[in-house]
Design a protein that fits this description.
Layout: H1 16-29, H2 47-50, H3 65-68, E1 79-89, E2 92-96, E3 102-104, E4 109-120, E5 126-141, E6 154-171, E7 174-191, E8 199-220, E9 223-230, E10 233-244, E11 252-260, E12 263-270, E13 276-285, E14 292-295, E15 307-310, E16 316-326, E17 331-340, E18 358-368, E19 372-382, E20 386-388, E21 403-419
Antiparallel strand pairs: 1-4, 1-21, 2-3, 2-21, 4-5, 5-6, 6-7, 7-8, 8-9, 8-10, 9-12, 10-11, 12-13, 13-16, 14-15, 16-17, 17-18, 18-19, 19-21, 20-21
């Protein structure tokens, strides 16, 4: 989609049973949902993969393959279940205006669970899987005295995916897979607009559908190739907005159309001996679709027009590399790194989504036995300060996002699985 997002028309509501099933799954399995991602991405979905810098598309040999490359579940005999949790240990973005003002986002420790299950038939080359995970998310809260409160105070994105898949081993060396995604999302925005004390809020949610697909090809014992595709989804958030300028104003029904990107990732795994696995991945996220989001209905709060949120994002890339060393009796250790490019220019930069180029390093270890397997990974997400000097000012207050921003986030993730 290349045109700017304007007034929206909602998709027909999903059936009651689908809505209730997804909402119940989300509420029980993935609370809380807020997180920090690469822009809005959460590429971390399994500690074994995280320890390898998420270079896992061509390996994909545990149940989290449902996310990384669903074709990989054909490598898993019988029935398998896996649960895991990713912990963001202190999400922090530091802001320095260059003129004496400094601010930090609120400290948060955010656990994000993931659940995967697979089953491979004995007599047919078919495997089935089901995953529940959060591929996108955001949680940012700035203090009121940041110097840009009329641009951003708080933003929350919650996005939960229910993903059944079917994989077919066409040849002993070649597997294909695909499955639908049922996605629930909630968006919350809080900011000032025109005065030092006013507050604008928007809160909406929606359900959308998409799909993912994967291919895994291992032409030789030492070489494996994997490709994963995730379709774009469009959330037509429906909810309400409010504005408090110091006098009572009724809330207004409000909608916002946000298109989440298609994602393509691919990797090559080289295994010089059975004790080593070296993989390189490239991941492309099509954020070009996210242009101007219009909050349709806000003019009923007394504004002369519906409020636009100008983002004007561009595509981003992840470059990932990981190494695993396997030992006797099922033990392994891994290390990895990935580099993430930014998604927005300085002109349209917003502290509501403090995006920048990032360097991400990780290490981990684990065990794979006859029935039980587990993994533990640590990760540091950081990067150079991003200098913003040409951001668009708020037309009412003149506040800008100009200054320097630096992100630092340590993570710790753990998983445990069982093979029946």
């Amino acid at each position: 989609m290349t045109n700017k997002l304007k007034h929206v028309h909602l998709y027909p509501n999903a059936s009651d049973w689908v809505s209730r099933a997804l909402l119940l799954t989300a509420a029980l399995a993935l609370q809380p949902w807020t997180a920090v991602g690469i822009a809005l991405r959460i590429p971390n979905q399994d500690p074994e993969a995280i320890a390898r810098g998420n270079a896992f598309a061509a390996t994909a040999d545990n149940p989290s393959a449902i996310y990384y490359n669903p074709a990989g579940i054909t490598q898993l005999p019988g029935a398998n279940v896996q649960i895991g949790v990713l912990n963001y240990l202190g999400i922090n973005t530091h802001y320095d205006s260059g003129a004496g003002t400094q601010s930090d986002t609120d400290f948060e420790v955010v656990p994000i669970p993931e659940i995967y299950a697979t089953y491979s038939l004995k007599d047919l080359p078919l495997s089935f899987g089901l995953g529940v995970y959060a591929p996108f998310g955001l949680g940012v809260k700035w203090p009121e005295d940041s110097g840009f409160r009329t641009l951003a105070i708080e933003s929350r994105l919650q996005y939960v995916t229910l993903n059944p898949v079917v994989a077919w081993k066409i040849l002993p060396s070649l597997s294909l897979a695909a499955g639908p995604t049922l996605n629930y999302s909630k968006l919350e925005i809080k900011r000032g607009l025109a005065t030092p004390t006013d507050v604008f809020k928007f809160d909406g949610n929606d359900i959308a559908y998409g799909f993912n697909a994967g291919l895994l090809w291992q032409p030789h014992l030492q070489w494996s190739f994997g490709v994963n595709y995730r379709s774009a989804t469009t959330m037509n958030y429906e909810g309400s907005s409010s504005y408090d300028p110091g006098i009572p104003i009724p809330t207004a029904n409000t909608t916002a159309r946000v298109q989440f990107p298609q994602i393509i990732s691919g990797g090559v795994s080289f295994r010089p001996t059975p004790k080593w696995n070296i993989e390189v991945n490239v991941d492309w996220t099509d954020w070009n679709t996210l242009d101007t989001v219009t909050l349709s209905g806000t003019k009923n709060l007394g504004f002369p027009f519906d409020l636009p949120l100008q983002l004007n994002w561009h595509a981003s890339w992840l470059y990932e590399i990981g190494v695993t060393r396997y030992f006797e009796n099922g033990w392994f250790i891994s290390a990895g790194y990935f580099y993430s490019t930014d998604t927005t220019s300085g002109k349209y930069y917003t502290p509501a989504i403090p995006d920048t180029n990032l360097h991400v390093g990780s290490v981990g270890f684990g065990f794979k036995g006859e029935h039980w397997h587990w993994a533990l990974a640590g990760q540091i997400i950081t990067g150079p300060s991003r200098e913003i000097s040409d951001s668009q000012p708020n037309p009412f207050t003149g506040q800008t996002a100009n200054g320097s921003y630096q992100l630092f986030v340590p993570t710790l993730s753990v998983s445990m699985g069982y093979h029946f």
